[in-house]
Amino acid sequence: MTGENYGFRDAHFAKQIVQKIKNLTVKNDKVKICHVCGTHEWTITHYGLRSLLPPEIEVIAGPGCPVCVVPAAEIDQALQLAQRGISITCFGDVLRVPGSESSLLDAKANGADVRIVYAVSDAIEMARREPKKQFAFFAVGFETTAPSTAIETLENPPKNFSFLASHRLIPPAMEMLLSVEDLKVNGFIAPGHVSAIIGLKPYEVFPKKYKMPTVIAGFEPNDVLMSIYMLIQQVSQNKAQLENEYTRVVKPEGNPKALEAMTRAFEVSAGNWRGMGKLEKSALLLKEKYANFDARIKFDIQNSEGKDIPQNCQCHRVIIGKIKPDQCPMFLKTCTPAKPIGACMVSNEGTCRVWAKTVNQ
Questions:
Q1: DSSP, residue by residue, 112-178
Q2: CA neighbor of 292 nearest in space, from 139, 127, 159
Q3: Which conformational region is residue 182 in: left (phi greater than 0), alpha (psi within -120 to 50 degrees), or beta?
Q4: Given the DSSP bridges, would you call strands 187-191 and 214-217 parallel, antiparallel or unpaired?
Q5: What pLDDT, on a 0 to 100 scale, did the predictor assign at position 8?
Q6: Residue 42 has what DSSP assignment?
Q7: What is the pTM of this model?
Q8: Which of 244, 266, 288 is the last residue of a domain?
Q9: Residue 7's pLDDT is what?
């Protein structure tokens, strides 16, 4: 039984599946489900899906916002480049992410050349049009956006262009959550966009090693409800399996061409995540043969520890689902979408930003 047997916009199906969830739920037996996708959080919050579920089921948001998990030290590196007169190109939601002391938006306001682009190819075209100026693309994102960075690297960009790579991998973060004291997750909803690239294999570790039910889900409200039902069904039967609710998009093998490009361009390394520390095998760095396009090497960028979490900010706890946004004392008081202090309030995929927009609707 999958959501594709029903109309995803069909309210009747939603009622059916919610009733099935309630029928499976054992009273007073708590089940905590964790998703790791900003779009899933938007769907859940915007459509009020939590209010449809029985109180025994809790759905928490994990580190599913690619902008939120960029460590301050890597924002600081982009700022170093900007201060040296290098043109920084990035996606719009990266602009306001706080570094240790300031953001790229602050640097732009102070005269640095910081430009918003919609694709890596836009940044490369800028570099070709202005060959006397150095350009760096701040490559932020999970497995969803990493292929575009890889492909452009392999296609030999202009000599005045480089990448400040800040790509992260989702499965290691999911493993990290299982080690968090008192979190006690009972099942994972895996992200559809990421899974469309990597396929099913990277998630096999969760049911096999950790006995953790895992379901890949799409982004319609009924996709999410269906994935919750599939997880509750596993929990009620004391099973741990990897299932794919999003079969209309996610194939078992993922996207072979994208994976091949990533393998050719990147090596997997340990990487820091904002508020989460260093996770092994969770970051993508350009291979040594592409060092000419690696901004850190090309411009001898200095590493710093960085200051991830401002005073009183609770982003590090929101990111791993330990607290809800409204449990942070700064939420919608000193930290707002107009003036974000924590990274979770910056991007449209950030949990705090999602909750703030819903409150203000």
A1: --EEE-SSHHHHHHHHHH-TTS-EEEEEEESTTTHHHHHHHHHT---TTEEEEEEEE-HHHHHHHHT
A2: 159
A3: left
A4: parallel
A5: 45
A6: H
A7: 0.93
A8: 244
A9: 40
Both tokens of 57, joined, read: 């089921």
What number of other Cβ atoms are within 10 A of residue 304's Cβ?
15
Query: How many independent structural domains does the chain possess?
Result: 2
Q: Is 245 helix (H, G, I), strand (E, B) or coil?
A: coil
Work out the end-to-end distance of the chain between its first and last CA atoms, rounded to an integer number of angstroms. 35
> What is the CATH classification number for the domain harbouring 153?
3.40.50.11740
Q: Which residues, including other chains, have CB under 8 Å from residue 52's CB and lie 6 or more apart? A: 14, 18, 225
| Phi, psi at 139, each rounded to 5° | -90, 90
Mean pLDDT (10-residue bins), the chain, 361 residues: 46 90 79 97 96 95 96 97 97 95 96 97 97 98 97 96 98 96 94 98 98 97 97 95 98 98 98 95 97 96 88 95 96 95 96 89 56
Domain region containing 268: 72-169+258-298
Look at residue 267 and give its three-state secondary structure: strand
